[in-house]
Amino acid sequence: MPTDDLATVRSYHARSKHQLQRYAAGPETLDWDAQPSPWRRYDGAPLSALPLPELDGAPAWPALFSPGAVPSKPLDLRGLGQLLGLGLGLAAWKQQGPDRWAVRCNPSSGNLHPTEAWLLLRGMAPDPQSGGVLPDGLYHYAPRDHALERRASVTPGPAGLWLALTSIHWREAWKYGERAFRYCQLDAGHAAASLDYAAATLGWHWQPLPEAGERLAQRLGLDRDADRAHPRGLAEPEEPEGLFALVTTPGGMAMPAPQPLDDFVGRANRLDPHPMYRWPVIDAVANASRGSATAPPPWAPPASRLELLPERADPPSAAALMRQRRSAQRFDRTARMPLAAFARLCAALMPAVGVPPWTVAPGRPRVHPVLFAHRVDGLEPGAYVLPREHGAAARLVEALSPELLWKPVPLLASTGLPLQLLAPNPALAGTLRTLCCHQALGSDAMLAVALLAEFDAALASDGPHGYRQLLQECGLLGQVLYLEAEAAGLRGTGIGCFFDDGLHQLLGMADGDTRWQSLYHFTVGAPVVDDRISTEPPYAHRETP
After folding, report:
1. At the N or C end, where does the chain have fewer CB atoms within 10 A?
2. If you ran DSSP here, which 8-state letter would residue 34 be given?
3. What is the mean pLDDT of residues 477-502?
4. E strands, 386-436, where?
5. Count of beta carbons in the 10 Å neighbourhood of residue 161
6. How many CB atoms neighbour CB 253 within 10 A?
7. Is residue 211 in a domain?
8. Where do the Nitroreductase domain residues begin and end (predicted)?
């Protein structure tokens, strides 16, 4: 592996840390009227509307975690509409005064949405009601219209569906500067997990394919500069992140993705005609970490630990729960989390075979949560750790402070969860607020989570591309936390602004020790809803005759 690429990744990670003394480099001012468009479109590409997803009825949320409980549906227009609508579609429109904005089923840092989705489609089944079918081709998903733009035809072959995710770095860099590359990777992980949950509502799942970098860019036509050309310069580029094959039958196997033919149509729109800043370090780390994804080594996760816990009464519809997901803006600082809800949340973070979102996970877990239980019934306030893989606890013991307790939690002994108390902290609120860049979302939450990644080991094993995989694994875990919080009647929010090394010092990590690095924070609590903000349906213009 190129040592200079590894050095670039390590240098970027270090310089993009927020410190108690300073924040990572970002823009000095923001003009919200000049925010980049959240809608990438390909002008001139034929557009096909998809059926809107059905939110009522089966399957219920718990059924997604019992392999075989959800019957496989045919891959037709209705199924494709539900897959993309619940995975990446709009969840609602929000309005306060003159400001109106969309929220989506997949979350994004700052609601900026750098993630784009592409489909390679062959041999779709006719829709049983309309008889409609999409021709084989390469498509770009347009979430605002819940429609597909057909950009090219594809080579003939067996029927199937393949999906690729890309990132438009400028959408995040416009607001967050150099730290934006991190956020784009987190968002890609959120999107992959969201799509896997959506697939599970249809009895399907995604399987990652070992393709990334330039090969994936060529497959999607992203290297065609002529398709981005405008009189005042090129439209913002899309960075390839990953390729997935849809498996629609139990025990089915993924097939190689088709190649597009040279009949591309459509030109990408410019999202920001007058960018004020440039962040060359983002291009540098993207180039260094691009590489090629490799197939993960064989690893068999255990059965779901959710089966060890009692089912909730009157479980919600999975589709409705995914559509209602939101990021909390404020928390009730007095509310408490029931121990049962905490146990289910911890169990949901453990990898499991054959259930979402673990079918899109990048192999053996390398990210392990440190949970700061602030107001959880039955638990004393303090720091706990949940090693997600056998052997991770021993590696953590070597790196963290020798004064930590590593004490099992008797109240959760029957669940089999490997949760350990590290240290009590009765003044946890102030600590969490400081670590989360002085945000009240840290101090007012019932629970805060810091995701610690096996940084050195990932780079040694997977090379520079391992940096992307770690961040995407963090985003995947964040999506678990979002949906499990909603299922418990609570709400979560991802915290991208935190003091990296401040958390390391709190855990007793030595200065300069990069064996473990904190890559993402998350908080869960009882939301305080702002009644000044009105909510409108996501596709009212589609539902009106």
Report:
1. C
2. G
3. 96
4. 407-408, 420-424
5. 23
6. 8
7. yes
8. 323-525
Residue 371 resides in a domain: yes
**Where is 100: in which H helix or E strand?**
strand 99-104
The helix/strand/coil state of 314 is: coil
Structural domain for 156, as ranges: 43-252
Q: Are 490 and 407 in contact (CB under 8 A)?
A: no
Task: Check which CATH number belongs to the domain holding 70 and give it.
Answer: 3.40.109.10
Residue ending a domain, among 200, 233, 252, is 252
How many CA atoms within 13 Å lie on the side-chain side of 400? Answer: 24
> Residue 1: pLDDT above 70?
no
| Tens digits of residue pLDDT in 373-392 | 999 999 999 999 999 998 99
Q: Which residue reads 């520079």 in tokens?
A: 464
Task: Name 521's bridge partners.
Answer: 450, 495
Question: Are 241 and 93 part of one and the same domain?
Answer: yes
Q: For residues 436 and 345, what is the distance between their CA atoms, to the nearest angstrom?
A: 21
Tokens of 260: 């597009």
* Residue range 444-470, pLDDT digits in tens: 999 999 999 999 999 999 999 999 999
Strand order through the sheet with 367-373: 407-408, 420-424, 382-385, 367-373, 447-454, 516-525, 491-495
Distance of alpha carbon 17 from alpha carbon 397, whole angstroms: 24
Say if 490 falls within a structural domain: yes
Task: State both tokens at 356.
Answer: 């979402």
Peptide bond preceding 357 in cis form (omega within 30 of 0): yes
What is the rounded CA–CA span in Å between residue 139 and residue 133? Answer: 14
In this prediction, residue 19 carries a pLDDT of: 94
Q: Is the pTM of this model over 0.85?
A: yes
* Cβ-proximal residues to 99 (8 Å cutoff; 6+ apart), any chain: none
Alpha helices in 425-464 (DSSP H): 428-435, 440-443, 455-462
